[in-house]
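hey m, so remember when u said the tokens were messed up on ur end? i reran from scratch. heres the input so u can diff it against urs
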Amino acid sequence: MQKVPGEAGEVARRLAEVIWHVLEFLWNWSFGQVVAMFRLPLDTLPLWKQLLFALVLSALGYLFHKISKDLLKAIQSVVGAMVGLGTALIGMMPQIVWAGLIAFGGAWIMTNMNPSWIPAALR
């Protein structure tokens, strides 16, 4: 029965690894295409190709702007989640302290107190 969670974890790990490799491949390919475009000899190109270059540059600028906004939104979500986790952990501190105090008090009473008013059968 314990093999099922282990196998599910292994499948999830492999799937994450495949997704990571695909993203890495796409990132490297896209970045390579952008770098190759910037290496074109712009001054020797005809005017219509220079205009196309400007159009491609503006499209790339728009996409990079959109990507940076989406990335910033994702970072804000992660930071917000971490702040929420920290807030929840800090909010639980009084209950955790109370649990510790109750356990400490119960253990202290059980080990140190032996009241005479409790019947001998219950001691």
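this time it looks ok to me. The helical segments are 3-38, 47-112. if urs says something different then somethings off w ur setup not the seq
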